[in-house]
Amino acid sequence: MMNEKELLEWYLSAGVDVVCGDEPFVASKKGATAEVRPAITDLAQMGAAACKNAREMCEKAQSLSELEKAVENFDGCALKLTANKTVFGDGDAHAKVLFVGEAPGGDEDREGKPFVGRSGHLLNKMMAAIGLERSKCYITNILMWRPPGNRTPTSAEVAVCLPFLKRKIELIKPSVIVALGAPAANALTDEENSISKIRGKWLEYSPQPGVVIPLLPTYHPAYLLRNPAQKAKSWFDFLRLAKKISND
Ligand code: URA
Fold first, then answer.
1. Do residues 101 and 184 lie in contact, with contact meaning Cβ atoms separated by under 8 Å?
2. Ligand 1 centroid, distance to 153 Cα (angstroms)
3. For residue range 133-167, what is the model confidence (pLDDT) as tens digits?
4. How far away, in angstroms, is 238 Cα from ligand 1 center?
5. 18-36 pLDDT, tens per residue?
6. Do β-strands 176-180 and 203-208 pair in parallel, antiparallel, or remain unpaired?
7. How far is the centre of ligand 1, averaged over its atoms, from the C-alpha of 167 (Å)?
8. How far is the CA of 185 from the centre of ligand 1 (A)?
9. What fold characterizes domain 44-247?
């Protein structure tokens, strides 16, 4: 039998972090008589329309603040409905170094900023170890909303958020991108590699023909918290990053 604290922790880990009332109730739309599930083809069309809409909104945004406004008005990702806050990004809009993670977690969802929980604290220490100030970098994620219970994002969720990440990169124009974990590296290189295969190797992200930004995949700090023995490899990756930016 769980005690009250354990029960609340269990709810939190499942993504239930808001109390709507004292009595349980079934949410339903006013006037709805039966549950209507769109057919798979309708869902695919809705996904394609949302991606098109995202790309159009991104094209219009000429600055990070305009892009953030566009995200406020964007309703093409259902994660926005379950998240507490939009986690757009944090840092210097003209940063030389851009860090990209996967998706906000519980702490980020509460604060509206990326990498502010345990993973963020480790990331801050790793940056400080090579003399990088967090406020002089830019930090963001593929997804701008927390998936409930921190579940793995679906490919449709990644696809609809990707135009916003790509536009951020066009506007920030970083000299270097650090992908924290395989999902971020794979989303930007359009490949399907494991992090153990690509970490520490310089890859390339091309925002437009003829333009190439060096991209360094490394372990996600959450992985390092679970596997501290791998921190030595990350240290080498960060030394490679330090060498690259000092040569710029
Ligand atoms: N993990 C991520 O990938 N991003 C965050 O912002 C926090 C944890």
1. yes
2. 12
3. 999 999 999 999 999 999 999 999 999 999 999 99
4. 18
5. 665 666 665 544 455 555 6
6. unpaired
7. 19
8. 14
9. Uracil-DNA Glycosylase, subunit E (3.40.470)
Q: Using 70 as the pLDDT threshold, list the residues of the chain that sit under it.
A: 13-15, 17-38
Say which residue the tokens 């970083």 belong to: 174
Report the candidate in 74, 82, 97 with the shortest Cα–Cα distance to residue 248: 97
Which distant-in-sequence residues (6+ apart) come within 8 Å of 18 by Cβ? 84
For ligand 1, whether the C-beta of 200 sits within 6 Å is no
Q: Dihedral of CA 76/77/83/88: which sign?
A: negative
Q: How far apart are CA 181 and CA 142, in angstroms?
A: 11
**Is 119 close to ligand 1, i.e. is its CB under 6 Å away?**
yes
105 in contact with ligand 1, CB cutoff 6 A: yes
Q: Say how many Å lie between the CA of residue 141 and the centre of ligand 1.
A: 7
DSSP characters for 43-96? Answer: HHHHHHHHHHHHHHHHHH--SHHHHHHHHHT----THHHH-SS----EE-TT-S
Cβ 140 under 6 angstroms from ligand 1: no
Burial 83-118 (b: 16+ CB within 10 A, else e): bbbbbbbbbbeebbbbbbbbbbbbbbbebebbbbbe
**Domain spans of the chain, in order of start:** 44-247
Between CA 105 and CA 83 the distance in angstroms is 10
Atom of ligand 1 minimally distant from the CA of 101:
3
Tracing tokens 């700090």 back to the chain, one arrives at 221
CA dihedral 237, 238, 240, 241 (to 10 degrees): 120
* Tokens matching residue 135: 């406020």
Nearest Cα residue to 180 out of 167, 195, 159: 195
